[in-house]
């Protein structure tokens, strides 16, 4: 089965073709970062318009790269949520229309399920079951994964997601957009001067909260001399606090579930400090850890094509409804 994957949940247009036996055939990604940088963040209306402009050309480019005709495609998978409503509708309407015109099934894919399954695209994929830490701009989740569509939510962020906290802290330090990578780069120049709190680690449970850490960072910054080195030291302390908080929660999840495999995915999983901290933790816990390659950490069509393929192989498909859901809890997946 050849599956065309379409990802348009936010500010990146991702297209891919995945084959059920041959694996990933080709994929392309167009990022809108340069356009949104002028505004210091994603402008939803501009994101939607840019998806409209780039989507069909990228689909043609991906099919050409795959040396496939539209008649070779057996199904279409598209991101239906969560995400920006306008951006989601562009991908959903295009996917549903192509599926109807080509006479093939289409399947709506949960964006976070795509991230959760992204490590399956690697040569050494994790076996089920595993614990997944999903860290992105809008979500921080701990999920117990027994198989495709068999998910149990263990913990989630009660306020700002880790990626959101990175972006807001970067803006606070005047680093611009996209904030997360810029803060990580600045942190490499920092020194161990400050000790920031590890939020919600002094109480039981697997939920996260990063808004208080963000406030602590702001107060520290306001009380500093605001020099370049001060900013680097604050970035270092903030990043270290987030990394250790995530590690503490993941260790609890491993011990609570008894599952010795940890999958870490989502845009923030590309952060070097977070990866190092989690690797150190799983080694001490005698566990295994799996990351997607950096190009599959951020939004991409390959993860959507893979997730959709697995569901289509199970016989799942949907009617002609154009389905888009900007808020869609992962624990509602069957």
What does this structure look like?
The protein is of the alpha/beta class. The strands form two sheets. It has a five-stranded mixed beta sheet with strand order 3-2-1-4-5, with helices on both faces. It has a five-stranded mixed beta sheet with strand order 8-7-6-9-10, with helices on both faces. It has ten helices and ten strands.
How are the elements arranged and paired?
Elements: E1 2-7, E2 12-19, E3 23-31, H1 33-37, H2 44-66, E4 75-81, H3 85-102, E5 106-110, H4 111-117, E6 130-135, E7 140-147, E8 150-156, H5 162-172, H6 179-187, H7 211-222, H8 228-257, E9 261-265, H9 272-284, E10 288-290, H10 301-313
Parallel strand pairs: 1-4, 4-5, 6-9, 9-10
Antiparallel strand pairs: 1-2, 2-3, 6-7, 7-8
Helix pairs in contact: 2-3, 4-10, 5-6, 5-7, 5-8, 6-8, 7-8, 8-9
């Amino acid at each position: 089965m050849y599956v065309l994957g379409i990802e348009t949940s936010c500010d990146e247009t991702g297209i891919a073709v995945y084959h059920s036996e041959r694996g990933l055939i080709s994929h392309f990604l167009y990022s809108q970062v340069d356009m949104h940088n002028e505004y210091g963040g994603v402008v939803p209306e501009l994101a939607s318009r840019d998806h409209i402009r780039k989507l069909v050309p990228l689909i043609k480019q991906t099919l050409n790269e795959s040396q496939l005709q539209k008649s070779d495609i057996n199904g279409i998978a598209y991101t239906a949520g969560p995400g920006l409503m306008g951006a989601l509708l562009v991908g959903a309407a295009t996917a549903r229309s192509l599926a109807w015109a080509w006479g093939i099934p289409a399947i709506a894919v949960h964006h976070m399920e795509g991230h959760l399954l992204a490590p399956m695209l690697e040569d050494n994929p994790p076996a089920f079951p595993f614990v997944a830490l999903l860290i992105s701009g809008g979500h921080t989740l701990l999920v117990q994964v027994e198989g495709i569509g068999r998910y149990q939510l263990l913990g989630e962020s009660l306020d700002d997601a880790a990626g959101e906290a990175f972006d807001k802290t970067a803006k606070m330090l005047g680093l611009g957009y996209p904030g997360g990578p810029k803060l990580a780069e600045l942190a490499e120049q920092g020194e161990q001067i400050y000790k920031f709190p590890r939020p919600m680690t002094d109480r039981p449970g697997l939920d996260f909260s990063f808004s208080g850490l963000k406030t602590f960072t702001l107060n520290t910054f306001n009380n500093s001399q605001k020099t370049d080195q001060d900013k680097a030291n604050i970035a270092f302390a903030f990043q270290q606090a987030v990394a250790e908080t995530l590690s503490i929660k993941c260790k609890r999840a491993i011990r609570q579930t008894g599952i010795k495999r940890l999958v870490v995915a989502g845009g923030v999983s590309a952060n070097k400090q977070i990866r190092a901290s989690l690797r150190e933790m799983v080694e001490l816990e005698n566990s295994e850890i799996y990351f997607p390659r950096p190009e599959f950490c951020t939004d991409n069509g390959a993860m959507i094509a893979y997730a959709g393929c697995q569901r289509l192989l199970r016989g799942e498909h949907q009617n002609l409804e154009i389905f888009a859901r900007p808020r869609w809890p992962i624990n509602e997946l069957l």
